[in-house]
Amino acid sequence: MIICMKKLINKINKKNRYFLPIAKGIGAIMLVTAVSVISVHFLTGDSLSDYAAANPDKAYSGSSGSDADTSAASNSEALNTSREQVDITRNHDIPGQVDITHDHDTREQVDITHDHNTREEVDITRDYNTSVQIHFYDPDNTSAPDRTTYSEGFYYEPLNDEMIDYITGVSYPVEGADEISVDDLRYIGIRYNDFNGIIQAGEMIANKSIARDLTEIFSELYEAGYQLEKVVLIDNYGGDDTASMSANNTSCFNYRVVEGSTSLSKHAYGLAIDINPFYNPYIVFGAGEDGSDYISPAGSEIYADRTQDFPYKIGPDDLCYRLFKEHGFKWGGDWNSCKDYQHFQKAE
Fold first, then answer.
1. pTM higher than 0.70 for the full model?
2. Contact at 8 Å (CB) between 206 and 188?
3. Alpha-carbon distance 103 to 127, whole Å?
4. Phi and psi dihedrals of 243, rounded to 5?
5. 102 belongs to a structural domain
6. Closest by alpha carbon to 201, among 146, 139, 130?
7. 187 and 316 in a common domain
């Protein structure tokens, strides 16, 4: 075969005197390349795949880098979902920034440093109450009587004996209430995306007249990726509305009066809900001790300025606002003498 090849090359070379020098040059390049690869293998002990992994710029010089980006994104997501600790820095397109550290394993506290237009720092430590947990969410319980399932993970049902026992003496009075019976209430189980984009189970109690509305609204918020920090029964906070707001807990039913008055709140009828309340505070103009505005919960004062742009802000451009309005709810942000930006309510 070699003799035949030589004859073929000589024959071609007679017709084209430039062929042989070119062929020799190509052969020399191939020989050098082969020697280099073999040297890498024998001198370093690396396989070709090891060499490629260690030198991606050489091995994959024609790659767009998208695979590497995807891998990096996956690694980053894996770190977030470990739920040990996530540090977030947000630039709100205004002077300054917000640095947030969440410790989601212990849920003990969140330290927040705000630096907005004033460029002054406000340090806020919120106690997350480590005892907070989901008590009754059970979407797979197909034997639950009178349950209405809206979509997977979203349902409402009458309160069972265990639920009634849990809220009695906390969010519902021991002696009962003439204005609202436990038979008028519904337990609502939902799913939601928390502030790290992790899917969580949530639960609330509401008046039966708005149970369907809330189930539909929270289903749409979930599908859209809308973020809520926490959705647990206010009984986890001893029925203390201020503690629930400070923990940025989204909640509905709580048999209580309007803050600073003797009148029953719409929450007492299960007809009102507060969404991400720490970022959407309750404000009474001129009701502060020195004649300034009263803002609740404490520490949320920086979010009272609604001309600023920041995460979780409820307003006319917000999906949460639009959905509640579409379902016939009124918004506390539209009130005159006070503003309750977290608050949506509906008449029976």
1. no
2. yes
3. 11
4. -65, -40
5. yes
6. 139
7. yes
Q: Is residue 72 part of a domain?
A: no
Print the domain residue range for 47: 2-59
25 and 168, same domain (yes or no): no
pLDDT tens track of the chain, all 348 residues? 544 555 555 554 544 555 455 555 555 555 544 444 444 444 444 443 443 445 444 333 333 333 333 333 333 333 333 333 333 333 333 333 334 343 433 333 334 343 434 333 344 444 444 457 899 999 999 889 999 999 999 999 999 999 999 999 999 999 999 999 999 999 999 999 999 999 999 999 999 999 999 999 999 999 999 999 999 999 999 999 999 999 999 999 999 998 878 899 999 999 999 999 999 999 999 988 888 999 999 999 999 999 999 999 999 999 999 999 999 999 999 999 899 999 999 986
The closest of 81, 125, 126, 75 to 105, measured between CA atoms, is 81
Is residue 272 domain-shared with residue 305, that is, in the same domain? yes
Taking alpha carbons only, the member of 295, 204, 212 closest to residue 254 is 204
Task: Please state, in angstroms and rounded to a whole number, the distance separating the CA atoms of residues 96 and 119.
Answer: 6
Same domain, 52 and 195: no
Strand residues in the chain grouped as ranges (E): 86-90, 97-102, 109-115, 121-127, 148-151, 154-158, 185-193, 199-207, 272-274, 282-284, 294-296, 330-331, 338-340, 343-345
Is residue 66 domain-resident? no
CB 269 within 8 A of CB 254: no
Q: DSSP secondary-structure letter at 257?
A: B
Total of domains in the chain = 3
Indicate whether 141 belongs to any domain: no
